[in-house]
Design goal:
The protein contains nine helices and four strands; from the N terminus they run αββαβααβααααα. By secondary structure, it is an alpha+beta fold. α2 links the parallel β2 and β3.
Length: 279
């Protein structure tokens, strides 16, 4: 991406400068990044014209503003009216969203900041200078939130063990459900900045399974999906006062598997935090 300007003619560079000027005037951004471009060449030939080469250029821009100042409809209207030499895609993120995404290593934003071409900055300084200052704060917050989530999850595991002693297997399964749900939320929040408070356990576990491609095959075993279904069934049974009592051997197996899954997610989360802090 850094060599974009080497591909452009003087005329195309002027067109890009004019485009950036329009973006700045309309969005009043903090920064404007180009994270993608395509040059499409076409040749027009006919009886009344010799070969005419036309180069259309498509740009993908990230526009960083203090608040998100334009709606999707407004952005589409702007892109349709402001650039006639090709297609234009604009993503408008607030500065707060960008910093939060960078603090947890969100791949999309992180790649643009590192590899994209900075076309404009309001203070005429690289955006990274501010990120470096804020990064440690955001990473520390992410670390504290992650650790609290897993402390709570293991607290539910201990509570489930107490229920086993009292032979209260329904409430034991309920506690295991809560432990897994809290762990999944903490894990997803670390990697994606998404709290998932209103999602059920099946959705949370699916998200955890797919997050950032970092999870081991162990978490994708079919028995784990069956475990999640059983824990969800127990949770709904206790919550809705339904008569559902899981068998002792089954719930004991659930406890061991749940604890192993949570420990695995905690280990992967710690590895991710270590990468963030060392980077």
């Amino acid at each position: 991406m850094k060599d974009l300007l080497e591909w452009l003619s003087l005329e195309q560079k002027k067109e890009l400068e004019d485009l950036v000027e329009k973006v700045v005037k309309t969005f009043k951004p903090e920064q404007v990044y180009c994270f993608g471009f395509r040059i499409n060449s076409s040749v027009k030939c006919g009886c009344f014209s010799e070969g005419i080469v036309r180069n259309a250029i498509d740009y993908d821009l990230l526009v960083v503003t203090q608040p998100v100042v334009k709606s999707e409809i407004e952005i589409q209207k702007f892109t349709g009216q402001s650039f006639k030499s090709g297609s234009l895609t604009i993503i408008n993120f607030s500065q707060k969203v960008v910093l939060a995404a960078l603090s947890v290593g969100q791949n999309f934003v992180n790649t643009i900041i590192k590899s994209g071409l900075l076309l404009y900055t309001r203070e005429n300084e690289p955006y990274k200078s501010e990120i470096i200052a804020e990064r440690a704060v955001h990473i520390n917050r992410a670390k504290i939130s992650f650790e609290r989530s897993f402390e709570t999850a293991f607290g539910f595991i201990d509570a489930a063990a107490d229920r086993f002693i009292n032979e209260d297997y329904s409430l034991m399964a309920f506690m295991l459900h809560q432990a897994m749900a809290v762990a999944c939320r903490g894990f997803i929040n670390l990697f994606l900045g998404f709290n998932g408070n209103k999602k059920n356990l099946e959705t949370l576990f699916a998200l955890a399974n797919n997050v950032a491609g970092h999870l081991p095959p162990f978490l994708q075993y079919e028995q784990n999906n069956e475990l999640i279904k059983q824990l969800l069934k127990s949770y709904n049974g206790v919550k809705c006062n339904r008569k559902f009592v899981p068998e002792k051997d089954i719930v004991t197996n659930h406890q061991g598997l749940t604890e192993t899954l949570i420990e695995t997610m905690e280990d992967y989360g710690k590895q991710h935090l270590n990468k963030l802090m060392s980077g």
